[in-house]
Amino acid sequence: MRVLGVDPGLTRCGVGVVEGLAGRPLTMLGVGVVRTPADAELGHRLVAIERGIEEWLDAHRPEFVAVERVFSQHNVRTVMGTAQASAVAMLCASRRGIPVALHTPSEVKAAVTGSGRADKAQVGAMVTRLLRLDAPPKPADAADALALAICHIWRAPALNRLQQAHAQHSVRKVTR
Amino acid sequence: MRVLGVDPGLTRCGVGVVEGLAGRPLTMLGVGVVRTPADAELGHRLVAIERGIEEWLDAHRPEFVAVERVFSQHNVRTVMGTAQASAVAMLCASRRGIPVALHTPSEVKAAVTGSGRADKAQVGAMVTRLLRLDAPPKPADAADALALAICHIWRAPALNRLQQAHAQHSVRKVTR
């Protein structure tokens, strides 16, 4: 299972590709950041993010794209930009027919550290250990993108079972 | 001056094309709504909006795209969807090199009704009058998209003067 994790943002959009299966060792295939200049026009920044994401999709051909689910509880201005960058990432994946999964920050933290309230350093440390890296990926957005991909690989079996249960339930209702 | 106005939304994205110049009669070239099913996956909805916007750009070849500037003061869930739909509209325009302008809801209302606090009915009535239509365009999102386009046509001369003043000021600073 090959997953591209995307930690969306206009200034720094973290991207990381992880391959593996739940219960097996994981492999990092790539990590980086798509950056856009803060003083550029919004439309041009979105075009630059699209180009960056497309390059990562071309280079790694992931089977899934995991994007951080955006909430509006933080700084309003930042959240708008995050929502817009995440829209571009989802658009690029869906246009190619790649399934998109959204995971909340606390789901990601809980998946990789055991605690939904872990800090950046703890997430970075666990990503480094789980992927057997020499040092935590920098900046934090890159580490977060890898954590998203790991989270998806580990949560996917449970999510699939849930979807199958829902599907069977629906079939039962229809055929009853 | 031909402007495509976009009132962004995931369920209903209003689109309207107006041609004209400040101080001259305006002409509506088209109006409509790009809809996506509320039960579809977010990524697929964004792809459908992209396809819809592309069709409008192909059909009308606007010189400017005016998009409503999204704020976060309202319902959080709606605002996220609005931000994501607006990102797709801006992306489509910027990818073609079409300049994108953002106008706030109160700027749009003030432009077409004289009051930044006008209600939907008042905006619809003025759009109908200014474009010499037989009835207000339905739904409100379609009328709002036309109002955005009209707002841009009327504000553009002032915005351009501002930009030129800024540019001259910068040149003066550099050559001083």
UniProtKB/TrEMBL annotation, chains A, B:
<dbReference type="GO" id="GO:0048476">
    <property type="term" value="C:Holliday junction resolvase complex"/>
</dbReference>
<dbReference type="InterPro" id="IPR002176">
    <property type="entry name" value="X-over_junc_endoDNase_RuvC"/>
</dbReference>
<dbReference type="GO" id="GO:0006310">
    <property type="term" value="P:DNA recombination"/>
</dbReference>
<keyword id="KW-0234">DNA repair</keyword>
<keyword id="KW-0479">Metal-binding</keyword>
<comment type="subunit">
    <text>Homodimer which binds Holliday junction (HJ) DNA. The HJ becomes 2-fold symmetrical on binding to RuvC with unstacked arms; it has a different conformation from HJ DNA in complex with RuvA. In the full resolvosome a probable DNA-RuvA(4)-RuvB(12)-RuvC(2) complex forms which resolves the HJ.</text>
</comment>
<dbReference type="GO" id="GO:0003677">
    <property type="term" value="F:DNA binding"/>
</dbReference>
<feature type="active site">
    <location>
        <position position="141"/>
    </location>
</feature>
<keyword id="KW-0460">Magnesium</keyword>
<comment type="similarity">
    <text>Belongs to the RuvC family.</text>
</comment>
<comment type="function">
    <text>The RuvA-RuvB-RuvC complex processes Holliday junction (HJ) DNA during genetic recombination and DNA repair. Endonuclease that resolves HJ intermediates. Cleaves cruciform DNA by making single-stranded nicks across the HJ at symmetrical positions within the homologous arms, yielding a 5'-phosphate and a 3'-hydroxyl group; requires a central core of homology in the junction. The consensus cleavage sequence is 5'-(A/T)TT(C/G)-3'. Cleavage occurs on the 3'-side of the TT dinucleotide at the point of strand exchange.</text>
</comment>
<protein>
    <recommendedName>
        <fullName>Crossover junction endodeoxyribonuclease RuvC</fullName>
        <ecNumber>3.1.21.10</ecNumber>
    </recommendedName>
</protein>
<dbReference type="InterPro" id="IPR036397">
    <property type="entry name" value="RNaseH_sf"/>
</dbReference>
<dbReference type="GO" id="GO:0006281">
    <property type="term" value="P:DNA repair"/>
</dbReference>
<feature type="active site">
    <location>
        <position position="68"/>
    </location>
</feature>
<dbReference type="Pfam" id="PF02075">
    <property type="entry name" value="RuvC"/>
</dbReference>
<feature type="binding site">
    <location>
        <position position="68"/>
    </location>
    <ligand>
        <name>Mg(2+) 2</name>
    </ligand>
</feature>
<dbReference type="GO" id="GO:0008821">
    <property type="term" value="F:crossover junction DNA endonuclease activity"/>
</dbReference>
<keyword id="KW-0233">DNA recombination</keyword>
<keyword id="KW-0378">Hydrolase</keyword>
<keyword id="KW-0238">DNA-binding</keyword>
<keyword id="KW-0227">DNA damage</keyword>
<feature type="binding site">
    <location>
        <position position="7"/>
    </location>
    <ligand>
        <name>Mg(2+) 1</name>
    </ligand>
</feature>
<keyword id="KW-0963">Cytoplasm</keyword>
<dbReference type="InterPro" id="IPR020563">
    <property type="entry name" value="X-over_junc_endoDNase_Mg_BS"/>
</dbReference>
<feature type="active site">
    <location>
        <position position="7"/>
    </location>
</feature>
<keyword id="KW-0255">Endonuclease</keyword>
<feature type="binding site">
    <location>
        <position position="141"/>
    </location>
    <ligand>
        <name>Mg(2+) 1</name>
    </ligand>
</feature>
<keyword id="KW-0540">Nuclease</keyword>
<dbReference type="GO" id="GO:0005737">
    <property type="term" value="C:cytoplasm"/>
</dbReference>
<dbReference type="GO" id="GO:0000287">
    <property type="term" value="F:magnesium ion binding"/>
</dbReference>
<dbReference type="InterPro" id="IPR012337">
    <property type="entry name" value="RNaseH-like_sf"/>
</dbReference>
